[in-house]
From TrEMBL:
Ranges where the UDP-N-acetylglucosamine 2-epimerase domain occurs: 51-383
Domain of life: Bacteria
Keyword Isomerase belongs to the record: yes
UniProt-recorded name of the protein: UDP-N-acetyl glucosamine-2-epimerase
Similarity comment: family membership: Belongs to the UDP-N-acetylglucosamine 2-epimerase family.
Gene: wecB
Keywords associated with the record: Isomerase
This protein's record includes keyword Isomerase: yes
Amino acid sequence: MEFLEMDSVIFSEDKGFQYFYRIIQSVMLDIVIVAGARPNFVKIAPLIHKLLREEKINYTLVHTGQHYDPLMNDVFFEDLSIPAPSYHLGISGGSQNKQTSEIITGFEEFLKDSNAKAVIVVGDVTSTMACSIVTKKLHRDLIHIEAGLRSHDRAMPEEINRILTDSITDYFFTTSREAGANLVKEGIADDRIFFVGNIMIDSLVRTLPFIQRPEVYRTYSLEENNYYLLTLHRADNVDNADVLTDILRAVSESIGDRTCIFPVHPRTEKMLRGTSIFHEIKNIEFIEPLRYLEFLFMQKHAKAVITDSGGIQEETTFMNVPCVTYRTTTERPETITTGSNELAQDLPALKAFLNTLEAGEWKTSSIPPLWDGNTAGRIVQKLHAIYSI
């Protein structure tokens, strides 16, 4: 039998392939990326596009199923050109605590049989927190994209998810200097914090050329910069019918004859069914959730957006569309200090901001640092550096 020699290691030809395979594997990084809800899909898309061209990083996409409405998940894989997930945990419905327990159980079954060295989680949804716990209990590296955001309101489920996730994260990728400062205050070492920018903006930059005018634009005879777009989904705003209808009345009273388009989250629709608001308000049009590319079109051409969503604060800032966020706090202060967003903490403030918009006045805004569409590339570069690949 002929023998080959390399670096003083002697092996037979029939074992040569196995040797080289082990060498190749030693310089490869296997990671898992977790997605479970609409914001996750938007944030993972640019990273996956980069990783598809990577030779040294293998990824596996796990979809927890946290959002189970087809308009809230499957359609995003199509609109954002993301390959179908390799694994689907099939979690859907129920309370957040029920979802948490089911995601933990399902993700543990998957991860314990995986060779992945690291798990990447994004944002602040239930899936992010639950999969983070499993990751560390199984002794894998945890990487959090969009780490360090803080609203300083622990009544928000998302704030609890952020705090718990960051408390056990190994490597932190942040959207802003403020987020990094939050982590430092919590005792995180500087060398584990990487200011890479906002990966959601990567998706926005990539998809803006392909946004699609939805049918509702024609149905309601909408004109550019002459309608409002409304989204509400946070528990504080939609879980009490009186609170929800008071918000809708405040919007209706403040926008005059203009039309407000309200794509209704399934959770919100359920709450509205027992009210008379559909018949009472004439200038708010209640529609089904839009596809991502359609929703971006509606944002881009709106006079303003009224929302309680974190991601929409970012998207409107990049597109320089006025935004009024109806919440008591925001974890994205740069959208206010630098961007086009304002925080309405109560109904009088909401009405005041809408009156300002109706008067044709709004502040001058700009785009925060590193919101440039290149965040995914910076993340991949950092992965190379962290894992020496």
